[in-house]
Amino acid sequence: MAANHKTGTVLITGASSGIGRATCLYLAQRGYTVIGTSRVAGRLDGVREDARKGGVEVHGVELDINSDSEVEPVIPEVISEHGVIDALVNNAGYGLWGPVESLSIDELRAQFETNLFAAVRMTKAVLPGMLEQRRGKIVNVSSVLGRLATPFNGAYASSKFALEGLSESMRTELWPFGVQVSVVEPGLFETDFQANQVKAERSQDPALAYIEYVQRYNSRHGQYEKFSSDPVKVSKVIHKIIRSKRSGFRYPVSIEARAGILGARFLPERLFRWLVSRATMR
Predict the structure, then answer these.
(1) Of 3, 92, 198, 263, which residue is 20 to 30 A from 10 by alpha carbon distance?
(2) 143, 159, 160, 167: which one is catalytic?
(3) Where do the DSSP E strands lie in the chain?
(4) Phi and psi dihedrals of 157, rounded to 5?
(5) Angle formed at CA 199 by CA 201 and CA 206, multiple of 5 degrees
(6) Given 26, 32, 156, 210, which residue is catalytic?
(7) How far is it, in rounded angstroms, from Cα 75 to Cα 133?
(8) Are 146 and 185 in contact (CB under 8 A)?
(9) Is there a catalytic annotation at residue 137?
(10) Is the pTM of this model over 0.90?
């Protein structure tokens, strides 16, 4: 049943599908004023319609988070209409796939533009209001690959490693002002992530030395989709962070995410690397 009181205003990027969509609906049903963004306004129609069917509302904003010229004027308009943002969920992102040698600098730059720089851009846009009221939550949606990297995901993993490093620094910087920063690290979930994944132009070039391993990776990867979970599990963790008086920093979500992180931490490096290679390339 939808809550009948407002518990805060939450801005969520990448709201048209996957974790962003699930989180918009989950928080709206719990009384939050929810504003979801997408680069194309029409992509938000589905989440707004599902919200209406549930007796709640999700506000949609067309916004290219990779553009200063859009974010700088639009976010003040959003704040003017809905009030200070109490929580920002930097969820938007995509994966660039391929051996590092196959990646062009332009492809890698685009990966960081969306997965890292856009999160900084959005954070800078909402921070003045949070600092003024001396409270707020910034939730950066990372990945288990922000803690450990797997073959052919170097671009995506490095962007998430960077996001986690940035988040760790901001957590300490902003703590004295009542603004808390947390990182969510999902494992496998039922989203459009794989469908939207971008393969580097040269990722499957037969001339690459890795081509045999790339083919094996591709043949094996589909086997792991059966372990995917409902993204609402991530939404529940985000809700826990937002409503917590003192939220923690890192929140792995899913059994495989926790297992991978523990394995990387406690197993001998060579053994862990062999296990990763065995699971993905052999």
Answers:
(1) 198
(2) 160
(3) 9-12, 33-38, 58-62, 87-90, 96-97, 136-141, 179-186, 198-199, 250-253
(4) -60, -45
(5) 55
(6) 156
(7) 17
(8) yes
(9) no
(10) yes
Among candidate residues 92, 94, 89, 90, the one with its CA nearest the CA of residue 111: 94
Catalytic residue among 38, 102, 142, 235: 142
- What per-residue string of b and e applies to 249-263 under the rule 16 or more CB within 10 Å gives b? eebbbbeebeebbee
pLDDT in 10s for each residue of the chain, 282 residues: 344 445 899 999 999 999 999 999 999 999 999 999 999 999 999 999 999 999 999 999 999 999 999 999 999 999 999 999 999 999 999 999 999 999 999 999 999 999 999 999 999 999 999 999 999 999 999 999 999 999 999 999 999 999 999 999 999 999 999 999 999 999 888 777 777 889 999 998 999 999 999 988 888 766 666 567 889 999 999 999 999 999 999 999 988 889 999 999 999 999 999 999 988 887
Task: List CB contacts of 265: < 8 A, sequence separation 6 or more.
Answer: none
* CA–CA gap between residue 10 and residue 241 (Å, rounded): 12
Contact between 122 and 140 (Cβ < 8 Å)? no
CA distance 36 to 44: 8
Structure tokens at 75: 């976010």
Report the amino acid identity of residue 135. Answer: R
* CA 194/CA 228 separation, integer angstroms: 11
Secondary structure in 3-state letters for 70-81:
HHHHHHHHHHHH
Angle, to 10 degrees, between the axis of helix 154-174 and the axis of helix 118-133? 10
- CA dist., res. 2 & res. 29, Å (int): 4
| Token pair for 27 | 């928080």
Catalytic annotation present for 16: yes
Length of the chain: 282
